[in-house]
Amino acid sequence: MKTLVLAVLNIVLLLVMPAAAFGQQSLISDPEIYEKKHFQEQCKTAEFADGFIIRQDINNDGLIDAVVNEGQLTCDGQKGPQCNDDGCTYNFYLQVAEGGYFMIATAQIYGYDFVQRFGNMVLAMKMHPRFCDRTEGDPCIVTARVRGTKFVTISKK
Questions:
Q1: Of 55, 61, 145, 150, whose CB is crowded by the most CB atoms within 10 A?
Q2: CA distance 106 to 67
Q3: pLDDT per residue over 98-135, tens digit each?
Q4: Which parts of the chain sit beneath pLDDT 50?
Q5: How far apart are CA 27 and CA 103, in angstroms?
Q6: Is-contact 150 104, C-beta < 8 A?
Q7: Cβ neighbours of residue 146 under 8 Å, at least 6 residues apart?
Q8: Other C-beta atoms within 10 Å of 42: how many?
Q9: How much is the pTM?
């Protein structure tokens, strides 16, 4: 019976492991090149302002990460074509020690500040008030820390 259970477990692992490998995101060499190429293919004319990409360490690991602000894109004469009442699309990329980057999050926000709280650098993202269970008023401030490869919400106000 014990041998049968081990055999079944081995078969399950063989079936699951390749599927998990396909679900893993591949690394890109540079988010700026990757994102600009994408929009140059989508737009007849794509222009990128200085704030299109911001390079800073967002997860406190000493490696410089990247944040892409699509609101700083002008596509066929339209500035921030995917911006709306919820803000503009921001893509957050982490750099890995082995070289390369991967995207950990996409958020529709008004902007963010990178501030120090309790000894760690955190993102204070300005978002639509509904993210703080309000229908109107000042933007909601969602404070999040990047821990490992995930955003962890610290507070909402």
A1: 145
A2: 10
A3: 999 999 999 999 999 999 887 788 999 999 999 989 88
A4: 1-23
A5: 9
A6: yes
A7: 58, 59, 60, 92, 94, 104, 123, 152
A8: 12
A9: 0.81
